[in-house]
Specification:
By secondary structure, this protein is mainly alpha-helical. It has 11 helices and no strands. The N and C termini lie far apart (55 Å). Bound molecules: zinc ion.
Length: 167
């Protein structure tokens, strides 16, 4: 093994060690437990719009109710489709009973769960989210992406400052 390969191997090990030790990023860790160079290479080649959508999906920083509740844009963090759990991308793509038929049509399974979602390539997750819509379940994710700043839609187009105050 040459020195370049050894450095690359060490780099991946170090990233995995640091990722494992981070106490935050709960939602992202459900999608990504270890560094995956192939997925990373896929992500950096995406258009800015698709990358933003993917990052929102993986991190939970999107227009679903849990995040909007954290931003104090709504006071109900529950899924508006089933009302059973917090409205997160993990819930929406993995276990929402209200769209189980759609999940089955697309993924071949009614419930993916975190383990199932990790097995899907990010391109597949993006394709599902961008699929022409029946109902509004995936539009809610795309909405924030298409309109620019997430808060723009909730605030009538006004852009919030980093401290959350409306300019
Ligand atoms: Zn639901």
């Amino acid at each position: 093994m040459n020195i370049k390969c050894k450095i690359s191997q060490w780099s991946v090990q170090e990233q995995n060690r640091q990722w494992h030790n981070i106490k935050s990023c709960h939602q992202t860790k459900q999608f990504m437990q270890v560094v995956n160079i192939r997925l990373r290479q896929y992500a950096v080649r995406l258009s800015r719009k698709d990358l933003r959508l993917l990052v929102g999906l993986l991190t939970g920083h999107n227009t679903l109710n849990r995040h909007l509740t954290l931003l104090r844009r709504t006071d109900d963090p529950l899924c508006p489709l089933c009302g059973e759990e917090e409205d997160t991308s993990l819930h929406l793509l993995g276990i929402c009973c209200a769209i189980a038929e759609k999940l089955c049509e697309f993924f071949g399974r009614y419930f993916l769960g975190p383990g199932g979602l990790r097995q899907e390539h990010w391109s597949t997750l993006l394709r599902f989210v961008k699929k022409p819509v029946e109902g509004f379940y995936n539009l809610r994710l795309i909405r924030g992406c298409a309109l620019g700043p997430l808060e723009a839609s909730a605030l009538g187009g006004k852009t919030p400052a980093p401290n959350g105050k409306v300019r």
